[in-house]
Write a structure and sequence with these properties.
It is a single chain. The chain is an alpha+beta fold and 109 residues long. The chain has two domains: 1-30; 31-109, no CATH class. The chain has helices at 2-28, 32-43, and strands at 48-54, 81-89, 95-99, 102-105. Strands 1-2-3-4 form a four-stranded antiparallel sheet, covered by helices on one side. The longest helix has 27 residues, at 2-28. The protein starts with a helix and ends with a strand.
Length: 109
């Protein structure tokens, strides 16, 4: 009787591992519909883009008229980094973000 219980205990464990592997494989495999949407998004020319520059800034030079002109901040050489994020609506009606050159679908549910 005890060996039968152990058999079913290990059978349940093996089933759970196999089921987990199937779920993990489904999460890794690309969705064909999503790849079509991404291909169409790469061909579009219009999207909303946000740009930002980061780095260690140098102090502004002191001048009496410095506050009257708009000037680009100066950065310590080698610390300046410009990043951009794009946003667009896909052909499936979902919202996508372009982060580091890769389109990613925004999930809202």
């Amino acid at each position: 009787m005890a060996t039968r219980r152990n058999f079913f205990k290990y059978l349940g464990l093996a089933g759970g591992v196999a089921g987990g592997g199937i779920v993990a494989a489904a999460a890794v495999l690309p969705d064909p519909e999503k790849t079509e949407c991404v291909k169409k998004l790469d061909k579009t020319l219009s999207n909303i883009q946000f740009h930002q520059t980061y780095g260690q800034r140098l102090p502004d030079p002191a001048s009496p008229s410095n506050h009257m002109f708009v000037h680009e901040p100066r950065y310590v050489p080698g610390t300046r980094k410009e990043v951009a994020v794009g946003m667009n609506v896909g052909p499936d009606g979902e919202l996508y973000l372009k982060i580091n050159g890769k389109w990613r679908k925004i999930v809202t549910e």
